[in-house]
Amino acid sequence: MTQATFPAAPDKHALEEGTWLAPRFGSDGLVTAIAVDADTGEILMLAHMNAEALARTLETGEAWYWSRSRGALWHKGATSGQVQTLVEMRVDCDQDALLLRVRVGGDGGCCHTGRRSCFYRRVVSGPEGPVLEPVHSAHENRAV
Amino acid sequence: MTQATFPAAPDKHALEEGTWLAPRFGSDGLVTAIAVDADTGEILMLAHMNAEALARTLETGEAWYWSRSRGALWHKGATSGQVQTLVEMRVDCDQDALLLRVRVGGDGGCCHTGRRSCFYRRVVSGPEGPVLEPVHSAHENRAV
Question: Which residues bind Mg(2+) (chains A, B) (predicted)?
């Protein structure tokens, strides 16, 4: 396998205003990726990509991530069927974050707990400090 | 100033299913925070919080981040007027990412380039590899 590489932007203007995809991988070799439902805008999950995961995602049109817990490339849905088909990828101003608009295969889930979205709890004030409560309905679970 | 602290979840079940806000700050002391428009669901920006930024956000109802480039706490909008008023905060399954649903003050912008959202470019295929093109309209700029 050849090592996936991406160019480095020569300056701040090229980074922010240019037409080069020049991702700024961190010292751990990763950029952050946010996956959202392409149709509803629901925030599904946050994960990380190294250069190889990003290259495979662009080549295959399906989301690949880098699993930090397993230390391995991760073709999302390869075993669960919850493949994320890429509808659009966006990059942020300083190119250290990616936004993936996806359609999810299989049962439509994204979270390893079985839920559709990983963001299934909200923070509310309790008498002894912040606590969590479930976000109940599918509608409420949309970030819209 | 007292040091902001949050509990650590005693086990995986408490982390994922419990009612404790037990953020898992990384080795750099940070969790990732995604800010979205509370009304439209548009993804506005991705930033980071340390314990102090998270505590101040919960106390004040306005988004505070940790600026990695400046190495300092960052009250978003303190100089620009683009204060992010918190409507709801969610946490993900393993509590290393936060989702902030916000309403943006001032001119409504979030990005230091002057744009409303930091995600103003999409990745498209070019003859020599992936390139970026602008996401033009306000409508298209919504992740819905």
Answer: 92, 94, 96
Residue closest to A26 by CA, chosen among B76, B69, B66: B69
Q: How many residues does chain B have?
A: 144
Count Cβ neighbours within 10 Å for each residue of A37-54 and write b for 16 or more, e otherwise.
bbebbbbbbbbbbbbbbb
Least confident range from A32-41, B2-11, B24-33: namely B2-11
Q: What DSSP string runs through A101-130?
A: EEEE-TTS--STTS-S-S--EEEEEETTEE
Q: Residue A142's pLDDT band (boundaries 50, 70, 90)?
A: very low
Q: Considering only CA atoms, which of A48, A111, A106 is closest in space to residue A79? A: A106
* Phi, psi at A81, each rounded to 5°: 85, -5
Binding-site residues on chain A for chain B (CB distance < 8 A): 16-21, 32, 34, 36, 40-43, 45-46, 58, 88-93, 97, 99, 101, 111-113, 115, 118-123, 125, 129-133, 135, 142-144
Q: Which pTM was predicted? A: 0.92
Of A36, A40, A119, the CB nearest to B43: A36
Measure in Å the smallest separation between the Cα of A66 and chain B Cα atoms. 16
Q: Where do the domains of chain A lie, and which CATH numbers do they carry?
A: 12-106+117-134 (3.10.20.810)
Question: What is d(CA B77, CA B64) in angstroms, rounded to the nearest whole number?
Answer: 9
CA distances, B124 to each of A30, A97, B42, B80 (Å): 21, 16, 21, 33
> Which chain A residue's Cα is nearest to B48?
A32
B122 forms beta bridges with A90, B133
